[in-house]
Amino acid sequence: MDLFAREDLKTLMELRKSPCVSIYMPTHRGGAEADPILWRKCLAKAEEQLLAAGRRSSEVKDFLEPGCRLLEDSSFWSNQCDGLVFFLASQFVRVYRLPMMFEELVVVADHFHVKPLLPLLSGGRFYVLALSQNGVRLLQGTRQSVAAVDLKGVPRNFADALATHDTDEPLTFHSRPVGAIGSWGAIYSGHGVGIDDKKDDLLLYFQKVDRGLHPLLREERAPLVVAAVAYLIPIYRTANTYPHLLEKGMEGNPDRLSEKELHDRAWALVRPHFEETQQKAVALYRQLAGTGRTASDLKEVVSSASTGQIETLIVALSKQRWGKFDSSTGQLEEHMQQEPGDEDLLNLATLDTLKHGGTAYAVEQEQVPEGGLIAAVFCLPLAKRGKRP
User: Fold this and answer.
1) In angstroms, how far apart are the furthest CA atoms of the chain?
2) Are 327 and 306 in contact (CB under 8 A)?
3) Do residue 96 and residue 169 come from a single domain?
4) Which of 69, 92, 113 is the last residue of a domain?
């Protein structure tokens, strides 16, 4: 499984090279004959859209070559997760195998289609760190599923951590999260403070685990749940430097639990955190309705997003609204079916909201206020918002 982090989203948002091809499709864990067949179908759709946009056939063939090469990679198709995402532009290729089942979607536009990935970054993604003296597992989970993350630079187990330890290297002092997610406190650790040698060794082990996780989690905000026997959890908290460690851990031997069992137990812990965040966004919209600080009209929302006037955006995850928007004039066209040169206007509003520092949530349509496809809370009421330049 591949990781998709905020840094990846930032890269995708900043790259605007026409054409940008975005492909989403469901896959089967461990691979299935149907996966490369569906991939070939998606490539054909991308080719059709590129040709309809006026690209030459030979140019399109060369452009899609990185996607075609994947068809020849049997090891790639035998190592799938729940969903496959592919981004292609001139001299730019990104492929992600993720623990999230996507609906089949192919979009060719002037920028990448990122809306389906929002649940991975806000309101649905979490990590489980399964710790024992026998091993370390890091799992990335969503509401739907979970998959193991490849670990590099992390000790395989307790014995490995001690075998590679420089005996002159002291245990350290640092700040660590205490209480709620994101809060910080200070703690000292090391020899001579009344902990026995075994706890010293365990602390060393967990500090090495924490340092190894840092490159993977340094840009993350997703909650992290520790799964370990009860007496190990407070020792890991002492070693931890990740500010989004969940206050409550999963007690018990994680070696006896499958990935699914770890997922189900962790989701029970993180679900209230996610639901509270999204419920606050919906409640804020309803509270401000009628004050000039909310809108659910697509044209108004897209136009306002382009000028950085949106504080919070809520869009329908599995829906698209095709059309064109001219940011220089504010003119918007909507089409019932996707036409050449169209983009998903919901995705465009999402990109612009995030680009200007706003917050965006992609949810099921029934969770969008007003029962529509999009809802926005503005930074300022209507009377104080500036006109389009």
Assistant:
1) 74
2) yes
3) no
4) 113
Q: Give strand ranges (E) for 19-125.
A: 20-26, 83-89, 92-98, 105-109
The reply to whether 119 falls in a domain is no
* Tally of structural domains, the chain: 3
Strand partners, 92: 89
Note whether 256 and 344 are same-domain residues. no
Residue-wise pLDDT tens digits, 252-310: 999 999 999 999 999 999 888 887 888 888 999 999 998 999 999 999 999 999 999 99
Instruction: In whole angstroms, give the CA distance from residue 123 to residue 260.
Output: 20
Residue 261 tokens read as 């069992």
Statement to judge: residues 140 and 250 lie in one domain: yes
Integer-rounded Cα Rg, in Å, for the chain is 23
- The Cα-based distances of 30 to 33, 37, 79, 80 in angstroms read 11, 15, 5, 5
Query: Where a domain ends, among 244, 275, 306?
Result: 275
Cross-strand partners of 314: 361, 375
List all residues 6 or more positions away from 274 whose beta carbon is below 8 Å from its beta carbon. Answer: 123, 124, 143
Question: pLDDT tens digits, residue range 46-71?
Answer: 999 999 988 999 999 999 999 999 99
Do 99 and 161 have their domain in common?
no
Distance of CA 76 to the CA centre of its chain: 22
Kindly report the number of other CB atoms within 10 A of residue 315's CB atom: 27
Decide if 281 is inside a domain: no
255 in the same domain as 141: yes
Site of tokens 């029970």:
268
Is residue 309 in a domain? yes
Q: Indicate whether 145 belongs to any domain.
A: yes
Q: Which two tokens stand for residue 161?
A: 């951590």
The candidate with the shortest Cα–Cα distance to 368, out of 314, 324, 332, 293, is: 314
Q: Rounded CA gap, 27 and 130, in Å? A: 26
Q: For residues 321 and 221, give the distance between their C-alpha atoms in angstroms, rounded to a whole number.
A: 30
> Which range marks the domain in which residue 66 is found?
6-113
SS3 135: strand
CA distance 190 to 98: 39
Q: Are residues 194 and 156 in the same domain?
A: yes
Question: Kindly report the CA angle at 314 between 310 and 317, in degrees rounded to 5?
Answer: 135
In whole angstroms, give the CA distance from residue 85 to residue 347.
Answer: 16
Confidence of residue 185 (pLDDT cuts 50, 70, 90): very low
